[in-house]
Design brief:
Radius of gyration: 21 Å
Distance between the termini: 75 Å
Number of domains: 1
Number of strands: 24
CATH topology: outer membrane lipoprotein receptor (LolB), chain A
Helix content: 10-25%
CATH class: Mainly Beta
CATH superfamily: Lipoprotein localisation LolA/LolB/LppX
Shape: globular
Strand content: 25-35%
Length: about 450
């Protein structure tokens, strides 16, 4: 039997070959990033079967359809194992939207410009850290847009989480118990300031040996109001961050163990510091990075901002009482690389490994799961991203439309608890979202700021 090179299964054979070799060069019909640099259009890099769910499924599922328990087995290979269980057994549904072909819609503008400007300049030093050609810290954008190894893929996630020089996220969180009822509801702010690896500005003054400053502080309800944490990351990814916190009961800032990264921030939440951006720990405190898969994937990469809803909140559905899941739009991501890593720097970590699915178009993760010490599936951490535009509503980031994450679900598949939170316009305490905001460091990212915010 003669097999045509570009038949419907060509991409499957191609991805299997690439995964077997443990490499992740983006593109099927040709290299992806030269095409992005020329036109930002990815269509010439992939066959038709990877550019729409209609073609991939041979018409069994169409753009605009919902994935439900009745048809989820058709796309089982396009979902992480937790998302599959949620749809199959818990009443979750996922709406399919068109695949994004214009990569400018998948980045903050300045970060994409930095990625294009600096591509090919990153390298690893003798200690395993990413450096610029002069041996100094990275200079902005994804260091490895055309990553070929698991550790290069991880570097793209680690060096600049939110892909802005600084970000203030106003977050509303709901904790859903196994019986489907709401057990807690929190408002908190998450603040990031990169010291180096900045897209727009030079290194943060006095912070050349640091990578980022990151704070989280709770504003509601009253029993946790004022609880706050500050994590100071070193650029050397072999070092643990410094972790300080303010607990209202003690009325002072105290130091926490530097490797205390696998515990809830407050009662009832599934979310750990280690989970942030699928890269919540210094990259070299994890090890044994390896690529374990390549192929298409369903991911929430567009049309996930609800700017036409009050405070950007959105409908929920599914679970025992109809409130477990956010309404979700996903698209067929044509080329996703899957890597695994193990927590080599954490002998008492409750996880044995993590598996991360990363979209090669923008090198951002679309799914992330962890496994317990026995090797059983433990938790998922599923993000949603989007340009901040919907109809006549639009949020600007300087002179360009803002891009960021919009919502996250963190599901402990073993005990059934669900953490779900979203980025809102503002939260209790008057905190509002913002990107590249002057004065962010002094206002939120010092121990003095923790004390002030706590009181």
């Amino acid at each position: 039997m003669h097999i045509r090179k570009y038949d419907h299964d060509y991409s499957r054979r191609f991805f299997m070959e690439q995964a077997a070799k443990g490499i992740a060069t983006a593109g099927v019909l040709g290299p992806l990033w030269p095409m992005i640099a020329n036109s930002a259009d990815i269509t010439k890099a992939y066959p038709d079967e990877l550019m729409s769910i209609d073609a991939w499924s041979k018409g069994k599922i169409k753009t605009g359809d919902f994935i439900t328990a009745e048809n989820v087995d058709i796309v089982k290979d396009l979902l992480d194992p937790v998302a599959y269980q949620e749809v199959k057994t818990m009443g979750r549904r996922i709406r399919i939207v068109p695949t994004t072909k214009d990569v400018t819609r998948m980045f903050p503008h300045e970060y994409l410009e930095a990625t294009l400007r600096n591509q090919g300049k990153a390298k690893f030093d003798a200690g395993g850290n990413i450096v610029s050609p002069d041996g100094k810290p990275w200079i902005g954008g994804n260091p490895f847009p055309d990553a070929k190894t698991g550790v290069e893929v991880a570097a793209n996630l680690t060096l600049c989480w939110g892909r802005h020089d600084n970000s203030i996220y106003a977050i509303r969180d709901w904790e859903i118990a196994p019986d489907g009822s709401q057990s807690y509801q929190y408002d908190f702010a998450w603040v990031e300031e990169n010291s180096v690896a900045r897209a727009q500005a030079k290194s943060f003054p006095g912070g050349e040996d640091k990578l980022r400053y990151q704070a989280v502080f709770f504003t509601s309800p009253v029993d946790v109001k004022g609880t706050s944490y500050l994590s100071t990351w070193y650029y050397d990814q072999r070092k643990f961050p410094d972790l300080s916190g303010y607990l209202p009961a003690f009325k002072r800032v105290r130091k926490f163990p530097t490797n205390q990264r696998f515990e809830p921030l407050v009662a009832g939440v599934n979310f750990y510091l280690s989970d942030a951006w699928a890269s919540g720990d210094p990259m070299l405190t994890w090890g044994n990075y390896k690529i374990v898969g390549r192929g298409p994937m369903l991911g929430a990469q567009s049309q996930t901002w609800y700017g036409d809803h009050p405070n950007w909140e959105r409908p929920v559905h599914g679970g025992p009482k109809g409130i477990t899941f956010f309404d979700t739009n996903m698209e067929l991501c044509p080329d996703v690389v899957v890597f695994e890593a193990e927590p080599v720097g954490y002998p008492r970590a409750p996880v044995s490994k993590k598996r991360v699915w990363v979209d090669t178009r923008n090198m951002m993760f679309v799914a992330y799961v962890t496994y317990d010490r026995r090797g059983d599936l433990f938790k998922s951490f599923e993000p949603q991203f989007s340009l901040y535009e919907k109809g006549d509503k639009k949020l600007m980031d300087g002179s360009h439309t803002a891009w960021s994450w919009t919502a996250v679900t963190c599901h402990n598949i073993q005990d059934g608890r669900m953490t779900r939170f979203l980025q809102t316009k503002s939260i209790a305490g008057g905190v509002s979202q913002g990107y590249n905001v002057e004065g962010t460091f002094d206002k939120y990212l010092t121990e003095q700021a923790l004390q002030r915010l706590g009181t």
